[in-house]
Write the structure tokens for this entry.
Amino acid sequence: MPASNKSDVIRRYYETDENLRIRQETHDKYTVPKSDFPRWVIETIDWKGDEIVLDLGAGIGTYYARLLALVPNATYYAIDISHKMLKEHPAPADSLSLSNAMHLPYADKSFDVIMANHMLYHIPDIDAALKEIRRVLKPNGKVLIATNSIHTMPELQVLMRRAIVLLTRYGATQVRPPALPSDSFALENGTRILAHHFFAVVRHDNPGQLVFTEIEPAITYLESMRELRQDHLPEDVAWEDMMLIMRQQITQLIKHLGKLEINKMSGALIASDSGGFIHEFVERDKTAST
């Protein structure tokens, strides 16, 4: 998908918080074992307690209350491309900015920690955004990025591929399920991308499952990602037809097994040149070279 088209799709998708809320509520309600993923992400960093933090693609402020609960003396700023999202954000209005991650409205070396959680894969030019992040990050600052694995939810991908094979005129060997949005910056390739911009990158994994005992929550979850995925279907396959077959397959699985289990893998990447986890190594390396 061309970058301009991708940007338009993302803007339309996040014009309201409905789809985001569906996804978050689905994970909150149906994840096994139960976990507070945003809090887990924040806790992957060792905080000093007085950091200046920038939250990129903050949306409705999912990480805001959890951050202040853990780091009450943090100074918080946030940006998002959706005015409607920011209106729902609980932080003071003067700490929020309607901005693009590729053109950050902040001075060089302003932030101790920059969070970019489940958003970098939406940006048309990820390298350009990371260069901006480096510009406004302090020399010993840290970047914290939550994303998915490229191997997350394989069961849904198999069911979707099977539905597409039944509908398309193309051969089965040519059929791929529509890519997940996070595939362009997942835990695997995201680690490599960050390594081009920062001295060190650490990966933390958080495996789990979505377990559905009823069909409607699973279908609602899939529909919440329609606008992000339907353009990747073969040209002769309509989203509505694919979802009809998905409904049939999921219904049969729940009928025979009593539940639909979807394995998922998300996690956090922390990148830095000399801060936090890498500081002692850098200092030791400096001493050894003098």
